Structures are given as C-alpha cells and as structure tokens.
Amino acid sequence: MSTRNEIGTQVDSLTFDLGMPTPQTAKDLYDVLDHQSAAMSYLWAIPTVGVESARQMLMDNAGAHSGDLVLVSGYRDVSMMLGSNVTTPYVFAYFNLSQQPLVLHYPRGATAGSLIDWWDRPLCDVGMTGPDAGNGAVFVLLGPGQKAPSDIPSGAHVLRSRTYKVLMFCRGLDADLKKVEAVFSATKVHPYGQKPAPASTRLLRFKTQGDLTSMAHPLGLPYWQRLANAIQGEPVEERDRFFAAMLKQLGIEADRSFNPDARQKSILEDAAVLGEAIAKTLAFKKRIAGMRYRSDAHWEYLIAPNFNNEQDVPGGTLFEERTAFFYEVTGTSAAVLTKTPGAGAAYLAAYYDATGASFHGERSYRLRVPQNVPAKLFWSITLYDTQTRGLIQNAQQLADRSSRQDLQKNADGSIDIVLGPTPPSGLEKNWIPTTPGKSWFAYFRLFGPLESYFDRSWSLPDIQLQSG
Q1: Do the Cβ atoms of 374 and 451 come closer than 8 Å?
Q2: Closest C-alpha to 169, from 198, 130, 199
Q3: Per-residue pLDDT tens for 326-371?
Q4: Between helices 241-248 and 23-62, what is the axis angle to 10°?
Q5: In 3D, which of 446, 425, 424 has the Cα closest to residue 370?
Q6: Residues 13-60: pLDDT tens digits?
Q7: Long-range contact list for 55-59, CB < 8 A, 24+ apart?
Q8: Which H or E run contains 74?
Q9: Which among 191, 230, 267, 345 would be 20 to 30 A from 93, CA to CA?
Q10: How many other CB atoms sit within 10 Å of the CB of residue 209?
C-alpha cells in the first residue's frame, strides 16, 4: 500500500498516520467496504429474492401454505407477476422440504411448467414438456441431504433439490378456465410415507378485494428482509460462501432473524437503490455479447444465447446474464432454452424504438408483424411497465395482442399492432393502450418457434414511432 497520508476515494479523503489508518479512516473504509458488499450482494440475490417474492405473493394474496396450489388468471391477478401474460392461466405452488420429502402427484392434461429450487434452477419440467409428456407423473421431492426412500413407487421421478424450498409454476394450456381448474384439481401433494387424503391439496385463488402483493423485488430495506426470509434455514453453497461472509457484516444470516442496527440499515437502504439501478441497467442496456436477434432491428433475446439453467459454466458463473434475466422474470425451465423447432417457446424483447429511444406512454407507435410468423402454435406481444416489470396498467385492462385473436390484417397478410394512448381508427382490435407519463417495454413470444426463427432468416421489424 502507498505510504501517502491522503488518498482520494469515493469518500472525500482518507487520512493515515505514517501509513496507519486513523479511527475516522477505518470507519469510512468499513462503510465503503460494506456498501460495496451490499451492492454486489443485491445483484447476487436477485434470483432467490424473486422466488421468495413469488412465495410471498401466494401467501398474501391467496393464504397459501406449503403444498397448496394457486390458480392465477385474468388481468388483475397476472399484473402481480413478472414478465407474464394473460393468454393462458398460471398455477403456482411452493413446497417446504425441511421436515421430510414430499410426493407430488402431477395431473394428466394440457399443462406445461417447471419445478425450480430457491435459486431459480429447474429440477424438472412438468406437463407437456416434462418426462410424462402430459400424461401425469409422480415426483418425489428430496431436500439437501435427504436420502431417497427404499420403496419409491414404480415409475416415480426422484428429484433432488439443493434448497429446502421448491417452487412449482406452470400454465394450463386449455383456453377454457373450467377445464384448467379440473385438471389441476386432480393434483395431490403429501409427505412421503403417507397416502394423500381425498381433499388434501387445495386449489386457491387470489382474494378479490383489497390490494394484492406483487412478486416484483421489493424496494429499499424490504428487499433485504425478503432476502433474509429466502435464505432462512437454507445451506450455503460453495459458490456463495463469500457473499454469505459479506452479508454477515450487514446483519443477514441463514440461521438468525434480520434485525439490522442503524448503521446497517443506512448502508442497506443506499445499496438497494444502487443495486436496483445496476440491475435495471443490466436488463435494459445489456452488454452481454450476442443479445441482438438481428442487426437490422432492436429486438433482443430475452434470455442470453449462452444461458445455462444451472447459471454456472466451466470457469465461472453467468452473473450478469442471470441478474438481467431474473430482474425481469421469475421462473425458468428446460423448455424455454430449447433449440428444437416446434417445441417450447421463444422470447424477444424490445426496450427501445427504431431510433434507439425509450418508449413513452403518451406517444403512439406501430409494429408491423409480418405474415407467416414462425410459431407452430401462436404468437403474442405484451407490454410491461418499466418500473414494475409487470403488465402495463390501463383503464381497459389490456396489455397484449396475439394471433389467437381476431386481428385486422393488411392486404399482404401482415398485422399492424398499434401501441399508444388513443385507439386508432379502424384498428381498434389491434390496439394496446398505453398510459401517458409511464414508460414501457415489449416481449414478442413465439409458442412453438420454427426453424426460420432459430436460423434468424425471419425478420421482425422495429417498433416505429408514429408522427403527429
């Protein structure tokens, strides 16, 4: 270290007495160290805070406990989710394995989803994209260190989670909500060694009155409380040991309650502001190589082409990739990473218009969707609020349009989607209302993407600002 008595830093100055830190310098440097540790820990924690926020959403909005299923459908309910749409309903559940393994009897029917651990790493796809291909399956869920029972039922799938908490999220693929309810009502969850009671698994809905809790990452000090809840009782993995050591100095540990002192609160609150700003930048101004779908438009892959659901690759961790992805959404699966034409789903994101400017709710834009979109099933476009990453909020309760709808077509078969505050004459069926004073971004989804999407021979033009 230099023996100079003053060194310029992010604090005004640091004073040393013949190279030894003075008491004030030591205090300032520990504040700097803990602030930087907190800011990096904020980014590191985004996946698990997102999953924990999903659990909080289920508890607050539906009174759900471990093993309960919650059906989420319609604009109001789906608005509480990150990066979702209202095309088909969702079903969530969380499972606590801390006491014993659980058995999940997943139902037969048209569904698709995933079981993920508390760091948003898939254990297994379920439903049409799972090992049962929609025919129903039995899963035995094991927590860290739990041994597989010797009498596993024939044909059951044993899944080992690296965390004691597991989240299930899936979609009912039938357009009829009653049929979706009937399918998931057949689900059974019970501790291993017990038989499922006839009515042991509840299918709940969100409350219809009062405010709902969003699954978005909380702001400020509540972010850290959510993190403390997420890691409570969970083992520390090798890759996370340095973060665990840094968080201990900030009053956050897996085996104690969160009760920060005044200094820690101040540092955590400031770091949450900085961390959220960095996370938003990583998501909306990515510096990850290969994110642009094509060079002739601003559409980007939502998921980095090199993304691995384990979040780790030889030689390192996909730190920025996972931070950006899980700032925008919660929940992933093998199906969303598929490169098999006609399977799974693909996601393109637009954060800026054709000129590179952000989208303003008081302005009108147009997207011309070419004919013959390479989607085996259907395509959709959905708008999201930049601040919440949930559906844009408007009086019409309308955030998306899809090829499943009766949209107005142009003579060449293309479809103009209009995005703006006022309905366009003659294209009302193609309109998504935006709100003045609010910014937004868009996802274009292809369900069952085909070869011309994967080889990028298909082109999706930019969203264009309309004059006047």
Answers
A1: yes
A2: 130
A3: 999 999 999 889 889 998 889 999 999 999 999 999 999 999 999 9
A4: 110
A5: 446
A6: 889 999 999 999 999 999 999 999 999 999 999 999 999 999 999 999
A7: 55/94, 55/165, 55/167, 56/213, 56/215, 56/226, 56/229, 57/81, 57/92, 57/212, 57/213, 57/214, 57/215, 58/92, 58/93, 58/94
A8: helix 74-78
A9: 345
A10: 5
The band of 79, judged by pLDDT with boundaries at 50, 70 and 90, is very high
Give the residues across from 191 on adjacent strands.
102
Reduce the DSSP state of residue 440 to 3 states and report it.
strand
Q: Tell me: the pLDDT tens digits for 83-123?
A: 999 988 999 999 999 999 999 999 999 999 999 999 999 99
CB 91 within 8 A of CB 186: no
Structure tokens at 170: 């899936």
Which residue, 282, 216, 250, 251, is CA-closest to 83? 216
Architecture of the structural domain at 16-283: Sandwich (2.60)
Across the range 367-388, mean pLDDT stands at: 96
Assigned token pair, 83:
């990066």
Outline which parts of the chain fall under CATH 2.60.120.600.
Answer: 286-465
Give the model's pLDDT for residue 10.
Answer: 67
Domain with CATH 2.60.40.1610 in the chain: 16-283
DSSP 239: G
pTM tops 0.90: yes
Do the bridges between strand 415-420 and strand 431-433 make them parallel or antiparallel, or are there none, so unpaired?
Answer: parallel
Lookup result for tokens 């502001």: 273
3 state SS of 325? helix
The pLDDT assigned to 180 comes to 95
The domain 286-465: what is its CATH number?
2.60.120.600
Report the alpha-carbon distance of residue 170 to residue 186 in Å, rounded.
Answer: 15
